[in-house]
Amino acid sequence: MTVTKVNADVLDLTDAYALSGAVAFSGTVTGAGGMNYISSVTASSSASVVFTGLTDTYDVYEVQFVQVLPATDNTQFSCNVSQDGGASYLTGSNYKHSIHGDNSAGGTSHNYSATQTKWHIASNTSQGNAAAEHLNGRWNFYGLADGQKPTSCFSGGYGDPSGNNTRIHQYGSYHLNTSAVNALRFTYASGNIASGKFHLYGISKT
């Protein structure tokens, strides 16, 4: 098979290109925009999952969580922020949220609060620890390292948290403190994270 190499100095990425077959990139590709993979954590009887080293390189960070399951029955999945690199996490009543949820049985739920001590993906619904009751979804964080405006987030998750009905939740929130956030911690309200995968991405500014 003939291999054609393209001189990057003469490749105009403003033009339209159609690539076929297997395309392999080497080196560092920059300036392309989009979602950039940063790191992953696989939980296994873990007290928490933590991502540190967050900077203003990205305006938006996204954490995807896959088949996350608690060790303790009837508990809630949550997140706290840190402003000192993960040495401590803010737990004051400065987390505001609004949540909407639906389930496959036709039920709906809503929850609002201005005085939470952490972000919950579904603060009015607890999750079970049976194998089928895992949680999947994503959490988007905006302006974490801005240091001028409150950090805000949006999350969406689905699963079978009660063992009876598939549920989907949409969650919007912000933290009142305007200092830069540089670490995130995911926990359950009680007990460990029995299993699950967490993937961190940064969304390019351009």
**Approximately how much helix is present in the residues?**
under 10%
Strand order, biggest sheet?
1-12-3-8-9-10-5-6
Structural class: mainly beta
Total E-strand runs:
12
- Strand fraction: over 45%
Q: Terminal Cα separation, in Å?
A: 36 Å
Chain-averaged pLDDT: 80
Question: Any low-confidence stretches, pLDDT <50, length ≥5?
Answer: none
| Apparent shape | globular
Q: Calculate Rg over CA atoms.
A: 20 Å
Note the run of SSEs as H and E. EEEEEEEEEEEE
Largest beta-sheet characterization: 8 strands, antiparallel
State the helix count.
0
Can you describe what's shown?
- The protein has 206 residues and is mainly β.
- It has an 8-stranded antiparallel β-sheet, with no helix packed on it. The protein has a 4-stranded antiparallel β-sheet with strand order 2-11-4-7, with no helix packed on it.
- It is globular, with a radius of gyration of 20 Å.
Main traits of this protein?
206 residues, mainly beta, four-stranded antiparallel sheet, eight-stranded antiparallel sheet, globular, single chain
Quick summary:
The chain is mostly beta strands and 206 residues long. The protein has strands at 35-46, 49-52, 60-70, 77-82, 95-103, 108-116, 119-120, 135-142, 151-159, 167-175, 183-188, 193-203.
